UniProtKB/TrEMBL annotation:
Region (Disordered): 424-453
Protein family (similarity comment): Belongs to the glycosyltransferase 2 family.
InterPro entries: DPG_synthase, Glyco_trans_2-like, GtrA_DPMS_TM, Nucleotide-diphossugar_trans
GO molecular function, one term: glycosyltransferase activity
PANTHER family (UniProt xref): DOLICHYL-PHOSPHATE BETA-GLUCOSYLTRANSFERASE, GLYCOSYL TRANSFERASE
Span of domain Glycosyltransferase 2-like: 28-194
Residue ranges occupied by any GtrA/DPMS transmembrane domain in the UniProt entry: 292-409
Organism of derivation: Streptomyces maoxianensis
Catalyzed reactions per annotation: a di-trans,poly-cis-dolichyl phosphate + UDP-alpha-D-glucose = a di-trans,poly-cis-dolichyl beta-D-glucosyl phosphate + UDP
Keywords, ordered alphabetically: Endoplasmic reticulum, Glycosyltransferase, Membrane, Signal-anchor, Transferase, Transmembrane, Transmembrane helix
Pathway: Protein modification; protein glycosylation
Enzyme Commission code: 2.4.1.117
The name this protein goes by in its record: dolichyl-phosphate beta-glucosyltransferase
Amino acid sequence: MRTDTPRGTLPAREHLLADSADLPVLDVVIPVFNEEDDLERCVRRLHDHLARTFPYRFRITVADNASTDSTPEVAARLERSIAEVRAYRLERKGRGSALRTVWSHSDAPVLAYMDVDLSTDLNALLPLVAPLISGHSDLAIGSRLARSSRVVRGPKREFISRAYNLILKSSLAARFSDAQCGFKAIRREVAERLLPMVEDTGWFFDTELLVLAERAGLRIHEVPVDWVDDPDSTVHIVSTAAEDLKGVWRVGRALAVGALPLDRLARPFGDDPRDRQLTGVPGGLARQLVGFCVVGALSTLLYLLLYSVFRAGAGPQVANAGALLLSAVANTAANRRLTFGVRGRDRAVRHQAQGLVVFGIGLALTSGSLAALDAAAGDPSHGTELAVLIAANLAATVLRFLLLRTWVFPDRLGDVPVPDAPGALAAPRGDTTAPPHAMPLDDATITMTRNRR
């Protein structure tokens, strides 16, 4: 793949021009393993559909990953007879490995894939790739679980699919609805940055790709699809599910410790409408206020809960200090990630230390309020203590936001990659080295049956 922009940021999304080059706009990859019976029929059906309905140049790439039957011969015959078909031969199994290899070598600006059985109605293909062509979205997926989707499959597969997506939502906080539908597309410049971060080479490849893209703030477009189950599918459900669960654990652990450099997937400042300056409002203030209020409300509930627990076995000052300390650590971590958008472990200890200073100021304010209450009322009730603490915490909250914004997480607009002119990008930020688990593309043994068109 070509990389024409700095590795630290993605270029702004732009509408792809239909007549800008002789290259195809869309490259549809069909990963296959021992599909000699169905391959030709499905490829010809897909080609006929694209030729009749798709308004841009296209290519169909058959990615044969280590088939042991006559699939390679069928793919080669299709390449010879249809100008828009290309055949790849890989000597290693794995859908993820096949997609990584073909997508990484494709010159089309929009890359897609679908299963060879064409279970998904092809009328959804143009709606799938249209948001990528227009520059609206970064990735697109077909969803069998959307309300308007029409799906025909047995109860066993239905249960497994919904259970798997429920696991993703609960463990990885995924918001997309269908991770494993074999009907997806991605813009090439996004794939350039995202593929080296995806470790899995099998069926979990899709899920890992989507989770990382979503966590990096990329836009994922979902298309409801009509889908009919293939009763002759060769997917081994039990072993696939086990590998998927291992992948969920691995990705969840990497995200929890900040081991993935997701900042390299950031869009340049100004590409997101939320980044635009508002008259009289400092950049990002509106978003930060909303995030801070949400985090503050949850932190206050945590603080009151901890105070009530500690108060049962200790005095009010000790209970207040312990509850405020624990809630302050959680508050700093949450504001760091959610309010001010700081990811990874860089300066995390420093931020927590500064947060503890802010905690000390809040402690002085709330402890002073308790001391004043004790001096005035003698032996106040628990409810009165809580009321005073709530009022003191409201004042401390305003002060905490100001300190977090101006001191702990200062608004450094100069660090954000702002183009000085169209096409000009600032220097990348953060670590731009590939993670240790990134798989080099050279590991795949590729045999092209013919030179690229």
